[in-house]
DUF1244 domain-containing protein
Amino acid sequence: MDPSAEDTARIEAAVFRRLRDHLVRVRPDVQNIDLMILAGFCRNCLADWYSEAAAEHGVALDKDQARAIVYGEPFDQWKARHQREATPEQLAAFEDARRRHG
């Protein structure tokens, strides 16, 4: 049985919430640069996509609001508690990934 459009939207929303909650609660230690290196997106990308989807549905959501939704708190607070300075190795891997997948 194929899910209805409404069921699909509910399932996709649940998957997004699970991904967000995993990044917020289980793995806040995972650095955005590592996500970018491995997956080509990070929490900021998710926030941008969230904001863009909101706009497509007529909902105004600025960058800070979208980031607070994705990070589970204001970005500045998350950054102060969890973000570390990127290492030279991370920066090199990021540049390599960007060149390969650019």
In short: The helical segments are 5-26, 32-39, 43-56, 63-71, 75-82, 88-101. The chain has a mean pLDDT of 95.
